[in-house]
Automatic annotation (TrEMBL):
It comes from the Bacteria. GO terms for molecular function: hydrolase activity. Pfam families: DLH. This is Dienelactone hydrolase family protein. It comes from Sphingomonas alpina.
Length: 291
């Protein structure tokens, strides 16, 4: 069963990250599982569930939350989800970057977790220019694949600039991203220079090692032991950062899958690894964007 599960996750990852069509996914899963019905059960267990309960209640009285637009430059705005402690005066800011499904309820939940960690959090919708994140996650992935990546990076840097000038803030801004968002963390770190205070990437494919010299922000990188696709770029990236004298800490969580932090995916989520990575993440962010 373990081998079947691992192979099923590999097939699903190929679908989500290589933009295969659903018919191919269903055919390969049915071959693996023995029937279309069994394939659908496998897919449901691996895919993120929109119906999964939030860890932090959106109405949590400790927080102030809202969703709306914000300006990132002349004539340029984005939609985002905001979460902050009731008293966020003097708090550092953190941008939460979504996976390739866009700004989902799960990512809004992660933003609330960041806020409970003591930060002013915003989770931008990087599909804002394309009408916003659709409810259909496959449609969202298609839109992510068509996004202008240079424009996405520019929007992220614009958000950082906005966060650093936030009234009652402390002038510091970090970022945290997952999967597609983890990849974006690395690329923003390359492009933003000293404008970025700190970055945390969860299982994000990395840039070319030659780009490491451009990074100025401290980085915390989380990798999944079974995630060979991302490890192929993550290892060389980490070594290049170290060789360039950059402030980088990388952890590999053995025996877990890509997206192990996503508690809405029954088969991928690993509670122990997620809790440890989160503890390290919040401590890292406090060490670099407090005061």
């Amino acid at each position: 069963m373990s081998d079947l599960r691992d192979r099923a996750i590999q097939i699903y990852d190929a679908f989500t990250h290589e933009h295969r069509d659903r018919r191919t996914l269903l055919r390969e899963m049915a071959t693996l599982a023995g029937s279309v019905a069994a394939a659908e059960v496998l897919i449901a267990g691996i895919a993120a569930s929109p119906a999964a309960a939030a860890i932090i209640d959106p109405a949590d009285p400790r927080l102030v939350t809202r969703k709306g637009s914000y300006d990132i430059g002349p004539g340029k705005s984005m939609t985002g989800y905001f979460a902050a402690p009731r008293d966020a005066r003097g708090a550092g800011a953190v941008m939460v970057i979504h996976e390739n499904r866009g700004l989902t309820p799960h990512i809004e939940d992660v933003a609330r977790r960041v806020a409970l960690g003591g930060f002013y959090a915003v989770a931008p919708d990087f599909l804002s220019d394309q009408g916003g994140t659709p409810a259909d996650e496959n449609a969202a992935r298609d839109l992510i694949g068509k996004a202008n990546y240079d424009a996405v990076i520019a929007s992220a840097i614009g958000t950082i600039a906005r966060l650093k000038t936030r009234e009652n803030g402390n002038g510091k801004a970090g970022i945290i991203g997952f999967c597609w968002g983890g990849a974006l963390v690395n690329r923003v770190a390359v492009a933003a220079g000293d404008a970025l205070s700190a970055g945390v990437a969860y299982y994000g494919p990395a840039p070319a090692p030659e780009e490491a010299a451009k990074v100025q922000a401290p980085l915390l990188l989380h990798y999944a032991g079974k995630d060979t696709r991302v490890a192929a770029t993550g290892g060389p990236w980490t070594e290049a950062l170290k060789a360039a004298g950059k402030d980088v800490t990388a952890y590999t969580y053995e025996g877990v899958d890509h997206a192990f932090n996503n508690d809405t995916s029954k088969e991928r989520y690993n509670e122990a690894a997620a809790a440890l990575a989160w503890e390290r993440t919040i401590a890292f962010l406090h060490s670099h964007i407090d005061g």
